[in-house]
User: What shape does this take?
Amino acid sequence: MEAEERRRGMLELARRNGMVDVGKLAVDFGVSRETVRRDLRVLEEHGLVRRTHGGAYPVESAGYETTLAFRTTMHVLEKQRIAAAAGEVVGDAETVFVDEGFTPQLIAQALPRDRPLTVVTASLAAASSLASAELVTVLLLGGRVRGSTLATVSHWATRMLAGFVIDLAFIGANGISREYGLTTPDPAVGEVKAQAVRVSRRRVFAGVHTKFGAGSFCRFADVSDFETIITDTALPLAEAHRYSLMGPQVIRV
Assistant: This one.
């Protein structure tokens, strides 16, 4: 098997399973562990995977994006802790934007329900989880619904957002890096996120450690646009400090 074909196979497995293990890849492809590490290094240099100790996981890009259903199976405990911490930074905000994605969906469930709150969201799942809350008013953005994430996009959504001034936005991303800022694979999704950033007074990024250092296709915000970053403790403290030097407070939970 040629190296390029082998690397394509490794990438396909990483995208199908969410991650790959060096030892198993060596057995599956009949090569040495060092060859596998070299192949993963090449894939990482091309921005297709991120290597970890003993393996790698895929980076979402213009040609690959995980579904909402898949995201509900990965790093669930970390996402629950992040969502709980996000609920504690709402403060006196009366209007909140909740982004699409599984972590924002969990954040929606963690929002206070004992006082009046207006929530604007593109996420059908987030809107559904809040619809029965007596004191919460839910505004669901219109537009084309993406089947992979069950969220609305395109000019209907951005035009609706442009008419708001929002106290606090909880924003997700497929990747966040000090070099490229916050990125997402789909331009239509990027437009909605960028508009939410523009119309919000306070902005919080919430995402697991695997998002950090990754860059996707469409850049929609800078790290310095955010007052707070909430992630899990698997992000090294030294790396969290580097992000904090760019402006936001970094909370690791």
Q: What stands out?
A: DSSP finds ten helices and 15 strands in the chain. The first helix runs from residue 3 to 17. The longest strand covers residues 200-206.
